[in-house]
Automatic annotation (TrEMBL):
InterPro entries per the UniProt record, alphabetical: GreA/GreB_C_sf (IPR036953), TF_GreA/GreB_CS (IPR018151), Tscrpt_elong_fac_GreA (IPR006359), Tscrpt_elong_fac_GreA/B (IPR028624), Tscrpt_elong_fac_GreA/B_C (IPR001437), Tscrpt_elong_fac_GreA/B_fam (IPR023459), Tscrpt_elong_fac_GreA/B_N (IPR022691), Tscrpt_elong_fac_GreA/B_N_sf (IPR036805)
Species: Caulobacter ginsengisoli
UniProtKB keywords: DNA-binding, Elongation factor, Protein biosynthesis, Transcription, Transcription regulation
Transcription elongation factor GreA/GreB N-terminal domain sequence ranges: 4-74
HAMAP family per the UniProt record, alphabetical: GreA_GreB (MF_00105)
Residue intervals of the Transcription elongation factor GreA/GreB C-terminal domain: 83-155
Organism classification: Bacteria, Pseudomonadati, Pseudomonadota, Alphaproteobacteria, Caulobacterales
Family to which this protein belongs: Belongs to the GreA/GreB family.
Stated name of the protein: Transcription elongation factor GreA
Function field: Necessary for efficient RNA polymerase transcription elongation past template-encoded arresting sites. The arresting sites in DNA have the property of trapping a certain fraction of elongating RNA polymerases that pass through, resulting in locked ternary complexes. Cleavage of the nascent transcript by cleavage factors such as GreA or GreB allows the resumption of elongation from the new 3'terminus. GreA releases sequences of 2 to 3 nucleotides.
Signal peptide: none
Pfam families on file: GreA_GreB, GreA_GreB_N
Molecular function per GO: translation elongation factor activity
Amino acid sequence: MEKVPMTAEGYHALDEELKRLKTVERPSVIAAIAEARAHGDLSENAEYHAAKDRQGWIEGRIAEIEDKIARAQVIDVSRLSGAQVKFGATVSVVDEDTEESSRYQIVGDHEADVKAGRISLSSPLSRAMIGKEVGDVVEVNTPGGVKAYEILKVEWL
């Protein structure tokens, strides 16, 4: 069984979502199904079919989260250090073409949110940066061509 690396914050967020799905969403969709059944003929009852679809999505999401939690390898970023880029590092980079600087934290796949500055461990940029240090230049294949980034800073926040 392959471990799923994640930060403590990512684990907490998954746990909270699981609790919400089990204690709020699941009971409400069960009530919606019961109410739709009370309306009679189920074959043409759109409310019933929508509630059943929602129930299927909720149950699938619960199973997915439980699987991730079971395989979680929680990494406490505050205990990490070093000059090399690795999981959990917050890396400041500058695009060598546009001189535009960016800052990203390398996180697990389900935690990724580029707008919030968190990129997945499996993203092309992360894979290029892993093992590199301040001053190194990494090249990343993008849909618009090859981009070069210089690593300016590696932090452990």
